Amino acid sequence: MAKSLRLGIAGLGTVGVGLIKIIQDNADMLTMRTGTSISISAVSARSAGKDRGVDIAAYAWEDDPVALATRDDVDVFVELIGGDAGPALAATEAAIAAGKHVVTANKAMLALHGQALALAAEDAGVNLRFEAAVAGGIPIIKSLTEGLAGNNITRIMGVMNGTCNYILTRMETAGLSYDEVFEEANQLGYLEADPNLDVGGIDAAHKLVLLSAIAFGTQVDFDGAVLEGIGRITIEDIRAAGEMGYRIKLLGVTQMTDTGLSQTMRPCLVPQSSPLAQLDGGTNMIVVEGDSVGQVVLRGAGAGEGPTASAVIGDVMDIARGINIPVFGQPANTLKSAPAVQTAVESPFYIRLNLRDEAGAMAQVSTALADAGVSIDRMRQDGQQDATAPVLIETHPTSRQTLNAAIKAIEVTGVAIHSPVVLRIENL
Amino acid sequence: MAKSLRLGIAGLGTVGVGLIKIIQDNADMLTMRTGTSISISAVSARSAGKDRGVDIAAYAWEDDPVALATRDDVDVFVELIGGDAGPALAATEAAIAAGKHVVTANKAMLALHGQALALAAEDAGVNLRFEAAVAGGIPIIKSLTEGLAGNNITRIMGVMNGTCNYILTRMETAGLSYDEVFEEANQLGYLEADPNLDVGGIDAAHKLVLLSAIAFGTQVDFDGAVLEGIGRITIEDIRAAGEMGYRIKLLGVTQMTDTGLSQTMRPCLVPQSSPLAQLDGGTNMIVVEGDSVGQVVLRGAGAGEGPTASAVIGDVMDIARGINIPVFGQPANTLKSAPAVQTAVESPFYIRLNLRDEAGAMAQVSTALADAGVSIDRMRQDGQQDATAPVLIETHPTSRQTLNAAIKAIEVTGVAIHSPVVLRIENL
User: Fold this and answer.
1) Which of A43, A135, A191, A262 has the greatest number of beta carbons closer than 10 A?
2) What was the ipTM of the complex prediction?
């Protein structure tokens, strides 16, 4: 006689619908694999009447997700509402307080409230699981928290925002400007209601800081992450990078240094031969480096109905199997608070700047770089006849701090028409 | 007050030594992450006196792994002896009978005795875990059994033997013959005592059949796997594949068909642009396809002290955390016995054959192919002045059965100097 596990699902967008399909279509398989009958007691969403392509008539309806989360016939509250606070947070808190397990796909909520929620869940003895919050169907949370748990993680890198990946790839292949592709993505419905969540790197950084917490045993620290969006990338940058043997990707890097935790989410140049460079559209990739395992790479769809629902049901199945481990892999009350720092690791940088059409402008840039201790590996300015054509510089390896000083010195000269675009080159 | 989990480790080769280092160097981290103090009670190996670079003086010594496996102060028996039967199997059976959990890196033992051992372990209520048996540090067993458990897996493909990968890559980059590189690998200590385990595809197939059992809910069936080694691959094959846009890899493919389970481990041509083609040396890659998740790719070191020990300690930590799920992801007594079949999926094929220097030889080959229903996409014979130069053929997509009939017909004509080399082209 199989045990039973009853879900309450709040949020019936693509992921919620995908989850319902899996549970309706694969009930026997889920029972076989978990020894537990997994069922849905109740659902909640903004509109009860909407046709979602799945039959939800058998499930109780709740207008209020908090009421859903605390129902007697709900063992696991599945939070697919989204948003870093509001109903998602209220219902999650209510579920934990009522002794319900929680499975969520909500990276924003966890990035901002993860520590408090983890403490509450562990106090209550319930699971709070979030595989679906990071990189869709890729089992990265499980891999980090369990499979690779015997490692001291040294660094994690990843491309984790499909929209940015789409925009950058589309600019390159279609030769379109950022604004044109942005508008195209908007028409296609690829952008969040607040597009800055995607193109500003915020969504991807939400994911990165969750990985940091697990990898380094630190409290989730979104405020400590350094963010830079893709809005200043031009088609010239993409072309120039290509000619130099690179592609531009919105890359997240987290690593623990001697002085603190460095978390960055920024557009970077990566070699065309790197697996990271070869990602198209919505594919995500995460590179984990551990002291024993070396480098492990995981790749898969970072979003979408099926992949994200796959992650949610995986978490539900773990709960059905009785697995209960700390939210971030060690008890939340043992997670340390690490100072946020920028890594001191040196790298080459790509610089684009437009100079005023005046004699000696280039010399002033060269002098500013040299005085700051930044040496130039290669430099070009196409269309020499047009003095306003952008100047593209690849530096020898240097630290971000040194480079920032050089950029400031260039700005002080007044020869640059706009603040230079600076992109780190990650040779991986 | 942390709980405790005491290990008995049998086999002190590289993996055993790696495991001891992790436990000695990271005791606090392991305790923090599992809430359990993980310690070593006793060890066993062939030679007690040998200097292995780790201090084992604090551990009891057992000459007999069966005695080790059944000690009162051992909770988990870690089997790193190797070999499909003999002491490894005897000690594993003894451990299970004595109510001990087992963690093993032994793919051969599980490929041949996995079903019986899983039944015994589940009867006894103990864990039998084997992340380290497949693809070293890549958490593929956990991903399949847990993270992706909500999927109907449709296909798994993988490059899972570093030695074959090394040989094929080295032949290509150094322009050396198979025999030369084989000897080189032998000198470097890369080969098993029985090299056919590697170059015959046996070791890789051992891994593949374990993945099949989890993916398809079937009893481990090594006898049903179709194996072909890399011993007939020549430098000409590698060069010809390269000129056609492919690289040759020992590729495992497992999929459930309407008529049964197809498991193949064979050298194949894969497009140079495929991530599989870009693997070097000891790097493994596994591609999992599921109905919800789509395609997930995992890449990492497939062998070696650190990566394999990382997988072993991951399993140990799961046991410390109280996780106990069925060995192959569903109860062993529910695993089905599926008939072994060859997939009917059509693909193009690469054929190399050397013809006798006689008039009409090529015409006879063409006729034999056409009569069997195999159509030629492209064909070449370099050095037309030398009639004995190999003929290279790429066919249009056809089934293996059709192709085999054509090859038999070619052999009957007697114009081929040797049995043609036939390699499947996998466009992935």
Assistant:
1) A135
2) 0.94
